[in-house]
Amino acid sequence: MATLAEHAAETAVDFLPLLGTDHVEFYVGNARQAAYFYRAAFGMKLVAYAGPETGRRDRASYVLQQGKIRFVLTTALRSDTEVSREVAAHVARHGDGVRAIALWVEDAAGAWRETTARGAVSAQEPATVSDEYGSVVISSIRAYGDTIHTFVERRNYSGVFFPGYRALPEDDVARPTGLLHIDHIVGNVGWNAMNEWVDFYSRVMGFSLYQHFDDKDISTEYSALMSKVMANANGYVKFPINEPAVGRKKSQIEEYLEFYDGPGVQHLALATHDILSTVSSLKRQGVPFLTVPHSYYTQLQQRVGRIDEPLEELERLGILVDRDDEGYMLQIFTKPVEDRPTLFFEIIQRKGSRSFGKGNFKALFEAIEREQEARGNL
């Protein structure tokens, strides 16, 4: 059953004020080719690069941006440095996947001190990097699996991304699709581990419980999971945490944990102001989405009431709709974007609603199960 908790903003002190998501870094096997996919399919613009041509000999990184969404794709070039070995080992174990969720802060050293004092394991002590455009302070702590949170302080920097990165000219490959910002980032953890990580985000980072879904909310005939949504004090950053629940067959979370070889980021929800236009563009550019049966749409208006979007367009594109007491939201989910059935994306438009589509769970999870069955993993 879903519950809406009070925001941590109402507590006395926010010891970890966050300004939003700075970027998400992916470790990948071939960053040049992965960057082309996100440019051609998602419309992300290539804005910066670091590699041998900029003095970094052991790895290459491509920075992609659309709206406030910023992805960094990093690949190892050699095996003779600690960082390049770390990148290569991450890819060997997990396939292409999210390594770092970077959070924008005013004080990266203070964020590191506050979180490590509350039990976080340090991944990188505060460090300052500089070039002719100023300086950036970064620090990192460990989260679930091999995922880390990096704190980024960039108030004294006017460059394109970070010192050591070279700005690139206008991208003639990217065709923007109307994506605006990251709405939330979902992590999958192992059996009975959800509450451990809920406690981590509450105790270490000052987040509060935003919504809760149990296996009665998120289940089908065959599989189930449980989820708790954690939000920071101002609500700019939301992290749903999923764990498997007992079902007749293997759940999508179990499949993820098996193929990712441990906990990690399951999906990123990307916001748009016009989901019909955004999804139409993404489909034209080759992004594959899950589909739901016609029966979902025959009952839609009875379930959610009046909406602005034409029903036939929603069905043509496969977009789901749900309503709460503050409005409604529209969402759709891609198929996994890797060969492993791991990372995928959600496209979301909020029209007042702050929920996560509880009314769509059954249809969505049945669609995922059809894909699992086709892979032989249900």
Give the helix/strand layout.
Layout: E1 20-27, H1 31-42, E2 45-50, E3 59-66, E4 69-76, H2 82-94, E5 97-104, H3 108-117, E6 122-131, E7 134-142, E8 148-153, E9 166-167, E10 179-188, H4 194-203, E11 208-213, E12 224-231, E13 238-245, H5 252-260, E14 264-272, H6 275-284, H7 294-298, H8 300-304, H9 311-317, E15 320-324, E16 327-333, E17 344-351, H10 361-375
Parallel strand pairs: 1-4, 5-8, 10-13, 14-17
Antiparallel strand pairs: 1-5, 2-3, 2-9, 3-4, 6-7, 7-8, 10-14, 11-12, 12-13, 15-16, 16-17
Helix tally equals 10
Strands across the major sheet, in which order? 6-7-8-5-1-4-3-2-9
Number of strands: 17
Radius of gyration: 20 Å
SS class: alpha+beta
Task: Please indicate the percent range of residues in DSSP E strands (runs of 2 or more).
Answer: 25-35%
Low-confidence stretches: 1-11
Question: Any key phrases for this structure?
Answer:
alpha+beta; 10 helices; nine-stranded mixed β-sheet; disordered N terminus; 378 residues; 2,3-Dihydroxybiphenyl 1,2-Dioxygenase, domain 1; globular; eight-stranded mixed β-sheet
